[in-house]
Design a protein that fits this description.
The chain has 270 residues and is an alpha/beta fold. The protein has eleven helices and nine strands. The strands form two sheets. The protein has a seven-stranded mixed β-sheet, with helices on both faces. The chain has a two-stranded antiparallel ribbon with strand order 1-2. Helix 1 crosses helix 2 and helix 2 packs across helix 3. The N and C termini lie far apart (56 Å).
């Protein structure tokens, strides 16, 4: 029975995951081809599908659930993800919240997402503001492949363009909103086994102190912002002071924004 299989998988996964029951439920829902809510409401008394055990064994190697299922929810959208693309994190929703707070009743018309990955921040913003258009830039063709697939899946292909690039180098025009989730882990810092073994290092590591990407990105932002526009950049929770300092050096008025855990997670630049 599914209920018993979930209980056994939860015990099994406790050795590799901080959320073993959730992981088991997501993998079971994927094996059944249903949403997790439907699994919990209607399928617990059914027979467990044969594929479930193989999915659990993949998770036991630390392969992220999102790579196994091929999907991850973010903000109001579902994104296709896989090897070569950074998995969206709930903490990154802090950037969308900060942008909404900044614009209030207004809406940005043009949005730039630097380091877009599978289109995470850009597509979430375009879903939030249906009349906006945007550009996503990334240095990985693999990640951009997922971004383009996601834009088509979400019906946003006519509003979102994705290009291969090196941060803002070569980007022209001005944007009302610039979003960016750069790599910010210092070389040598400890990270989880799931992340270290499976997610792309180029999306994670940024020099000895984790600030190399900010040093590249922030000096380019002023020329890309429209008057009254804003940039929102994700940070590691210990980096608010350093990133705000870099922004002040470029003439910005930075404000840190906390995530749901109460830790600094984004810096709003105006």
């Amino acid at each position: 029975m599914i209920d018993a299989a979930l209980a056994a998988a939860t015990r099994h996964l406790a050795d590799v995951s901080d959320t073993p029951r959730l992981d088991a439920e997501l993998l079971m829902a994927h094996a059944l081809g249903v949403e997790r809510d439907a699994l919990l409401l209607r399928h617990l008394d059914a027979e467990a599908p044969e594929e479930f055990e193989a999915l659990v064994e993949r998770r036991m190697t630390h392969e992220p659930v999102a790579y196994i299922t091929g999907m991850r929810g973010f903000w109001t959208i579902e994104l296709a993800v896989g090897p070569g693309a950074l998995i969206p994190r709930a903490d990154s929703e802090t950037l969308i919240e900060a942008a909404i707070e900044h614009f209030g009743a207004r809406a940005p018309s043009t949005i730039l997402d630097l380091g877009t990955g599978p289109g995470t921040l850009l597509l979430a913003a375009l879903d939030q503001w249906p009349k906006a258009t945007g550009l996503g830039v990334d240095g990985s063709e693999a990640a951009l492949g997922y971004a383009r697939v996601n834009a088509r899946r979400l019906g946003m292909a006519d509003r979102a363009e994705f290009v291969l690039g090196d941060w803002a180098a070569g980007v022209e025009g001005r944007f009302d909103l610039i979003l960016c989730n750069p790599p910010y882990v210092g070389i040598g810092e400890a990270i989880g086994e799931d992340v270290r073994r499976f997610e792309p290092p180029s999306a994670l590591f940024a020099g000895a102190d984790g600030l190399d990407a900010y040093r590249r990105i922030i000096p380019d932002l002023r020329r890309l912002l429209t008057p009254g526009g804003a940039a929102v950049i994700e940070i590691g929770w210990t980096q608010a002071e350093a990133v705000c300092g870099l922004a002040l050096d470029q003439g910005f008025s930075p404000r840190a924004r906390n995530d749901l855990g109460g830790r600094p997670r984004a810096v709003l630049l105006t």
